[in-house]
Amino acid sequence: MRTNGARGRPTRAPILVCGLEHVPTKIGRHYRAVAAATGAAVVVYARDSSGLSAEVAEREGVAWCPVPSLERNTRSRRLRLRRTGGDIRTYLRLLRTLRPSHVELYHDAANDAVHLTYVLIAWVSRVPLVAVCRGGELLYWDQHRSNRKAVFWLGLKLARLVLYKELHMQSRLRALRIPDHRTFFCYNRVEVRADEPRPNLDRRGVLFLNSWRPLRCPDMALNVALTLAPRYPSIPFTIAGARTWTSEPFSIEEFEERVREAGLGGRVKILPWHSDVRGLFETHSVFLLPAHEVFLNYALLEAMERGLVPVIAAAPGAERVVDSGRTGFIVPLDLPEFVSAVDAILKDPELETEMCSAARRRVLEDFDLKCGSKELADLYQDLVWRS
Fold it and tell me: Are residues 28 and 152 both part of a single domain?
């Protein structure tokens, strides 16, 4: 197990977190705040698809235990079974040695058999289970195979608490007959650094920073940059977030080629995903999110906390984050609309500065990670840790 120095001595049994493909920064920060609020150490038992889990866990203050791995895309059934056996044996060892206060299981596991085993072992061992739904497991429920539906449904039914991350999930959970009193809308929140000097509001630049999945529309963000960069030669444009460890329909090479063809090399930067994005926030002033889903996007909240003006698509829930015209702009998912909104900000530095401050205040007031972690600690006490 790879750990960092614990911040303070734990006062209760650890929390064991399972079912993740890697340890992203937002997960590390979330569980660091949970540990502080609950007095429990957190151990994340996860794969390492990004290759950065150890670095993130060390920086964010959680322990990481890697799932036994094999070479990618191995076709050997025997080797896959060996890894599955090693995965389950390690899980059993963690349960025995940690004696966790509960198991927090993300319902997006790649292996249905392993996921089912996690659930059943926790249930037989009488270790409380918390299920976490954060994406496609509920959004694409009707497209899942019947065995995956059965595995996820059983995990939800046996969980003492179900945490869900997106607006659409509550109706699906109700359809699956999961009682409302056992569910909690655990939306994204971010670290608020109110005690730090306010961000430099003199910096200027346009940033897209998200995964390059189709629903995030990175190609539209690139088109915004290619349209506006010639008008503003002194302002940088950056399209970042490509994940090189997983398949995505857009590639860095393709985007770089388009930039070269437009004669904007050096003016429009194309960057991969990396673990520490703070430097990008400190050198840009406008944040683009031309996506089909924008509600409480983690990078959006981080950007606003650092004083970037958000320009986001008019997707469900967008108005819960951005007060259009005051803390940023909400516009239709259409290239001319996005170009017009960004252009309105860039040509009016006073408006840009005013919106930068308003965007940051919005996060400071409503999306503080510490407050959310205290709410979770109370729920654990009432629903999960009761005898």
Answer: yes
